[in-house]
TrEMBL record:
Keyword Chaperone assigned: yes
Residue numbers spanned by region Disordered: 1-27
Source species, domain of life: Eukaryota
A Pfam family of this chain: Prefoldin_2
Name the UniProt record assigns to this protein: Prefoldin subunit 4
One BP term from GO: protein folding
GO cellular component, one term: cytoplasm
Source organism: Exophiala oligosperma
Record PANTHER family: PREFOLDIN SUBUNIT 4
Amino acid sequence: MLSRRVLSKEEESESTDAEVTKEDQDKINTFSRLHNRSKLLEEELATKQKDKEDLEELSTELELADEDELVPYVNFAQTIIVSPLFSSLSTDRILNVFAHSVDRYKIGDSFMHLPLEEAQDLLSSATTDIEEEVSTLQEELGTVKDEIGQLKAHLYARFGRGINLEA
């Protein structure tokens, strides 16, 4: 009968069966929580960066608008009327762009037409807000990754090949 060996005899003899203490288990659990948190932060960061790109694209579209024309400004994610101004953007895309500013500009369940300058001001404010959110998320993700690195170093030093922290 053929048997497969995962580790060579030399690697097997090098492996240590270190006893896992409560402190070690706490560090493993912390590593797991931080790893999950980093994945969530990466997803949220990607979403915010996409929203930022959408806001920038919408800002470009508004630059092409006639100054005397009223611009439909969506302030909630249930009803929308899209003017020819936004013909290159899908309704879902416009909803995604303005979804994060629902609380600030919501007036019941409606939308409003705004002068171009006011729409650009609101868009500029929303862009600034999302840039701050992206920056905050990047800082938090960096902090989490630093903590993960420290825990990895400690746990690999303690357990060597007896633990796998790569995902």
